[in-house]
Write the structure tokens for this entry.
Amino acid sequence: MASALARLDVPFQPVTYATSGRENIHASDFSYSFAYEPAPEESSYQLKSFIRTVKGNPDADYADIRNWRKITEFSFAVEGKTTDLFSILPKDCEVLINPTSSEPLDSMSSTPPSIYLVGDIATPHKLMTLLHEIGHFFDDTNLEKRGTDTLMRTDYDGSFDPRNARDAEMLRKERNATAFAFKVINDILPNGQLKKDAFVYLKDYALQTYHSFIHESLSHRAAMDRFYRSDVDYYVASDKAQEEWDEYEEWRKTDAYKKWKALPENAAVSIEAGDEYGHWRQWVQKSGYDFYKDIYPDPEESI
Ligand SMILES: [Zn+2]
């Protein structure tokens, strides 16, 4: 991870940021251009709130709005097709960068729509972070279409820990935002070291953002963490993995699980160690066991 990140911090081409300017960045198979000007003084309120959210240092260089630039134009060109970033972001979305710091303190907010990036967007590293933040807006838009701001059930039964719903929803948001960045990177970067590094970084990024939100380490969460680490390729490909994990958790509440767990071949694995899920899933595949009937004993409840 450390060497991948070091390579990703090397800019596609060096940029010296002035008070305002315009840059054309030529990467291997694509290019992007952006223009910037001083960040408006009135954004300093939003900056302060952002510093609080990410628990940043209020005395650091990045806490001073005068060290920030406002991105006024940004477009990607891939295989002759140009995409204007601001045409896909919410109207009036403010994109600010602090090119002279390098702390990993990036953030986005839906209200007012804004993206704050600490670092040089001429590097693959910050370009991916930007894509990740854009991914959050896509997620928000999709949720809006459904008329909700969460996909997790919060009205579950009495045995349910609402903290897990909140964590799961945060994790889902991060997964989706990273999946978006993943797809774009997969489309625009040619196969090679840079693409490999990008994937290593994005996999780890999903976990870092997850950890920055959640400080407690309940076994449930530790197990989920293991799960996401090992199956990260799979989850980026689809949301099916989350569904399957949820099914597994449901099945663990049943008597069928207790019987299965009592068998000698299943005694060594545990959810705490993070190896039970994979072991169980393999067994389901091999045996063809219909665990849905345990989760939904009444056929009328199953869909
Ligand atoms: Zn995020």
About this structure: Residues 132, 136, 174, 177, 209 surround zinc ion (CB under 6 Å). Residues 153-160, 212-221, 226-239, 299-303 have pLDDT under 50 and may be disordered. The longest strand covers residues 69-78.
